[in-house]
Structures are given as C-alpha cells and as structure tokens.
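Appendix B. One record, verbatim.
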Amino acid sequence: MTDTTGTDAGIAASRDAVPETILEVNNLGVEFWVEGQFYPAAIDMNYEVRRGEVLAIVGESGSGKSTSSMSLLGLLPENSRVTGSIKLLGRELRGVDDATLRSLRGREIAVIFQEPMTALNPVYTIGFQIMEALRSHDRSMTPSEAKAQAIELLSMVEMPNPVQSFNKYPHQLSGGQRQRAMIAQSISGDPLLLIADEPTTALDVTVQAEVLDLLRNLHKRLDSAIILITHDMGVVADLADRIMVMKEGVVVESGTVDQIFHAPKHEYTQQLLASVPHLGLGVLETSPAIPEVVVAAEALTSVSLIRERASEAAEIIETRTPVLAFEDVAIDYPKRGRIPAFRAAEHIDLAIYPGEIVGLVGESGSGKTTLGRAAIGLLPIAEGKLTTVGADISDASQKDLFAIRRRTGIVFQDPASSLNPRMPIGQSIGEPILLAGLAKGKALDKRVEELLAQVELPRSYRNRFPHELSGGQRQRVGIARALALAPELLVADEPTSALDVSVQARFLDLLQELQQELQFACLFISHDLAVVDILAHRIAVMHHGKLVEAGTRDEILRGAKDPYTQRLIAAVPVPDPEEQRVRREARAALLAAGLEG
C-alpha cells in the first residue's frame, strides 16, 4: 500500500490555520416550484459544523435531509429557490456566481453521492475520473503526477489492488468498491467539509463496517468535518458526534449522540428510534437504547405482527409445492471483451414455497443478485434444474419466459437506474399492467393510484419524474411497479435499502399483508440482517457463489455454525452508541492481533 504519512502530515499542518467553525447555516429555506406554486422542502434551518466533527442529519425519506445539504453547493435543479444564509469559513455562499461555486466544489466542500453507480461516469475508468477531479483543481499537475496521486487515493480508501482498480470501469466493481472509488474522488481535493449522502446504502454489513471505519479514519487523519445524511440509526450510533432530526423540512430536535439516543425529547425522534429493527430481538418491546421511552404503538405493532405472522406461517409452508426451486444449479457469466468467463454460483439447492419469505444474505459479489435474476429468467443457468412458478426454465424459450415473467415481479437494487428517467412514475407503474392487457384508460389510472397508496406515495406523484423524488421515494415506486401484476413470485433485491426505518416497518407490514392475501413466494435479498430476522421464515447465506448455510432464522442468526455467517452477524451495527464503541474496540483489538480476516 502507498505510504500516505507525508500527505496526512501536510494536510494536518494546513488545517491548523482553519477556524474551529467551518460551516454556519442560518434560517435556511428551500422551496421547489411545482405545478404553479412553491412547495417547501426545508424551513428555517439553523446549525453549524465544527472542524473534525461528524454531524448526522436523520429523518424520513423526503424530510429535506439531502435537499438542504445539496443547497450548500448550489446542486439543486432550476425550479428551486434557496433563502437564508450559508457561510463557509465566514464567507457567504448565497448569491455567489457559478464560477465561485465550481472552485469550492471538491476543494472546500465535497459530496459522496447516494448512488455511486449513477454518480460515476460509466464510459470512463475510475482512475481517469479521479485524475480529472485532481487536475480540475490544479491545472499545473501533469498526467503522470495525477495518476500517481489517484493510485495513492485508492490506496488511502483501501481499494483492493489499487493499481489494477485504477483501470477498471464502474460496472466492473462491486457495490462496496464503487463506494470506495466515489470516496477517493470526493477527498481528492482535501475538502474541509465532506457531505456523505447515505454512504452505506445497499452495502452488506461487512462492507458497511469497512466503509464506516474508512470514513472515521479519514476524517481523523484529514481533520475534515462530515455531514452524514442517513436513515440508518446503527450507522449514526457508530460514526456521529451530533445528530439533527428532520421531519417534513423542519429540524425537530438536535443534540449529541448520547442525548438523542438515551433521552430523546420530541415524539417523532422517539418514534424514529422505536422503529429501528434490532438483530436478535425479533418482537420489539422497548428499545434498549431508550429504556425510559414508551415506544410508538404504530411502529411496534407493525414489527411485532410481522414476526408473529412469520412464525405462524413457517409451520405450514413446507406442506405445499415450491414456487421456486434450485436443484444443483450453476450459473456462468460468458466472456465479454477482455473480461474472461467465470462461474458466479454453483451447487445451489434452494426451494421457496407459497406464502414464504426466504432471506438471502451475503457480501457484495457473493452471488445473491445472480440467483435473483436467474430465478425469473434474466440469466441462463449452466447446470442443474431451475423451476419457477411450476415451469422448468432451465432451457425455456423467450416465449415461455415472457409468460413466466407475467407471473413474477422483481424490485431492483438501484431504483435510479431501473426507472425510465423520461417517463413519469405513474406511467412506469402502469406499464406492466398495460402490456399485460389487464387494464387501460380510467381503470389503469385507478389501479396506479391504488399502488401508489399501498407504498404510501400521494396520487399527485404519478406525474412526477424519477429525478424529482428522493432515493426512498424512488424505491417505493420500484416496489409498486413490481407488485402491479400481483405476482406469484417476488424477487426483492435490497427493497428496503433506501427506506427510512419507520417507512421500512410499514413496507414490511404491507409486504406481509399482500403475501397473506396473494400467497406469493418471496426471495428477499438483503444486507440488513435485522430486517431479515424480523421478516424471513428461513435464511440462506451465500459466500463466493456457494450456499454456505441455510436454515430457520433462529438456526442461522442465533446458532450459526459457519465462520463466515458468524462474521456477518458480528458486523451488524446496532442503534446504541455505547455498544458500538465496545464493538469498535473489540474489532480494533482483533485487527491489531492479526486475527480478523
């Protein structure tokens, strides 16, 4: 690995002259002009960020977390209006020209965007993109100097094989590696302030732990401040110093991590914490992080019912014929250009029954999504037998596959890239219904509005485009589209990754209610073991393309036999700052002893 000691020392020396307060925000307001009037997205926000501090902004999807933070650098669409004061090192940013803002972006304030697959340019290598960022701020830097520094940055973010990774395109990297590339590009200008917008969304727990360790180490080494935008309270407990809670564009509460987790004052903050799933608790009662708080009835009733229903259903599931069955299946990816053919999964034996949810967990690149895509015929199998909704699709024709897909649904991992950006969301949701000939005209409009209501989006949103929605709202659109044809089999690839905890609980409750009504089977691919613990009847664990362990949730999560499964469980963040500190110390001790692998 490249030695970055000299770089760190130089940056630290340059930080000595920086004032203690980096950012001051006063009476910040953000509005959007939609359909002839302004709608508020953030209202009278007041806060400051100090040097070396991590401020977490939490709240439900659409609460204004990302919008208010993107307004700091003028990264909002043209139909927005920003009011109030934004001062960086005492200098007012509101009203400055575009050239000035461009000079600040990356150098003074940088952003780690929520979806690296869409934020990184797919036609350029990650090395070229980091070099481009470096040279845009230092015109005197030669290409060879930029390349050397780009490789050094990839080493700093602990990218595997940084020299080889330099020449890779975004699609050739796993989700965790793309996130590391995005972080490397973001810190290329040694920013004073780093805005991390959902930096661990859709990452499996082990990679998430690595990225959080990376962010923590970088902000200490570089003495940069971080604004952490997230809905994951476990991540907040692990990384943040202070928390600001937002609801409907308003800051309802702020304080230190210990104050918010142990003595929340606002009812909404209490509900938010109460909605957090806890690995191993199953039926939530009173959160151990806030023992003196009586939790919200709606949030906990939902989670309790989910676990209770799952336990009852597990007793009768295996008396039925499976909806999805893998029998010694192997899946290959063919050779593409310079990329050699490789086997993504092998020796897969797994069955899912009507009304059952099987949770599929494992690290990024383990083969989880490969199985999900093969299940509905999006990937061919190389060996074995695969049966979906009663049909053998091992060598099915395109006509057969089309008929099978009308009886299945899939929620893709990345809603931003799976929705057509030129199509209003109402049209995206209604398209499968229209193509299947199930409804048209007013009947189609009514069905689209029903689906929007099921995923808790206003009917007026049917005329909005994907870029006008938050990440969580786009994920809900993808869920509504997948449920449009009332499928017998639903493949859910990280369906709750972009949802805040309270909406997540309601969605899981909705999913289970629909399943009881329609009796569809569900392959639930997730990195969130706490969600899988609450929802799934059985759990299968994948590692390097193989199923290493499968069983009931109690057998896997409370009696794991495989070392890899044990390591996954140990990496799960918990919404308790004190326990997170203990875990960090234990992990650091293992690393120091060279025992963690």
